UniProtKB/TrEMBL annotation:
Keywords: Cytoplasm, Phosphotransferase system
NCBIfam families associated with the record: PTS_HPr_family
Domain HPr: 1-90
Localization of this protein: Cytoplasm
Organism of derivation: Pseudomonas eucalypticola
Top-level taxon in the UniProt lineage: Bacteria
Protein name: HPr family phosphocarrier protein
């Protein structure tokens, strides 16, 4: 089960549009559980837009990601790429 810490680097953080993109990428892996949280002990469902938005993860927030199941490595890579690309928002 891949897990890692990553910093939210886009200007607005995990706001509604970014959360929707996150959930969209996570949803591309239906047989993989995607979890995100501020620490490994408080992970939430990364496929739930309401749960992701409730993290209120602003710019500079460190989040813990975890994937488990079929295509877990691919799911982790896709989510990390999305975050590193600033949710395709350019800033």
């Amino acid at each position: 089960m891949p897990a890692r810490e990553i910093e939210i680097i886009n200007k607005l953080g995990l706001h509604a549009r970014a959360a929707a993109k996150f959930v969209g990428v996570a949803g591309k892996f239906p047989d993989c559980q995607v979890r995100i949280g501020r620490n490994p002990e408080s992970l939430i469902d990364g496929k739930s837009i309401m749960a992701v938005m409730m993290l209120a993860a602003g710019k500079g927030t460190q989040v813990h990601l975890q994937t488990e199941g079929a295509q877990q490595e691919e799911a982790m890579a896709a989510i990390v790429e999305l975050i590193n690309n600033k949710f395709d928002e350019g800033e």
